[in-house]
Amino acid sequence: MIATSQQAGLRRERVAATLWSRSPEAQALTNLRQALPGIRAAFSCDDLRSQGDTLTLDYELAHTDIEREQAGSALPDDGIAEFGGPFLEGISINEPPFEEWLSKTRADCARIVRDTLFDAGNAALDAGNARKALLVAERILELDPFEEAGMRLCLKAHAANGEYSHLQRRL
């Protein structure tokens, strides 16, 4: 949550209420205070900053996958297969406010990934690199087999490569 809040950070009360919504506010804040050393240890350095009632990451030291994904227009061919995927995959905390935040954030990140991949695929087509465009299109379709933009990109890449038999199979 803190990493996705960018430079603004998050107020302690909001983090505590999101993660411990069933606890009284004082207990939720205590739980957060007790969790912070473990979070800092997970980062192996002091990237997590506490400025009064606000928690932030020091973006001079910490970098997130979201930043990497937003800069993905220059995706190397060998990085396409791993690019994207569900935000915080496998994470579930039985707290309705957290699950709501997670669902929204996953949708937002999926949109960023799709748009970034689509832009990279179109840039590859424009540069005459149909092979890379096809790799990108296949990654889009791995993440969401029903994504029309991914299918269009896939068809364009096959056509640019002169692979008309693939077009018939895809349709």
Strand order of the largest sheet: 1-3-2
The backbone outline, from C-alpha atoms, is elongated
Binned, the helix content reads 55-70%
Element order, helices and strands? EHHEEHHHHH
Alpha carbon gap, first and last residue: 41 Å
Radius of gyration: 20 Å
Number of helices: 7
Average pLDDT: 84
What structural class do helix, strand and pairing data support?
Answer: mainly alpha
Please give a structural write-up:
By secondary structure, this protein is mostly helical. It is elongated, with a radius of gyration of 20 Å. Strand 2 (48-51) and strand 3 form a beta hairpin. It has helices at 12-19, 25-43, 65-70, 96-126, 130-143, 148-160, 164-170; strands at 10-11, 48-51, 54-57. The N and C termini lie far apart (41 Å). The chain is built from 7 helices and 3 strands, in the order E-H-H-E-E-H-H-H-H-H. It has a 3-stranded antiparallel beta sheet with strand order 1-3-2.
Characteristic key phrases:
171 residues; mainly alpha; three-stranded antiparallel sheet; 3 strands; elongated
Summarize the structure.
This protein has 171 residues and is mainly alpha-helical. It has seven helices and three strands; from the N terminus they run E-H-H-E-E-H-H-H-H-H. The longest helix has 31 residues.
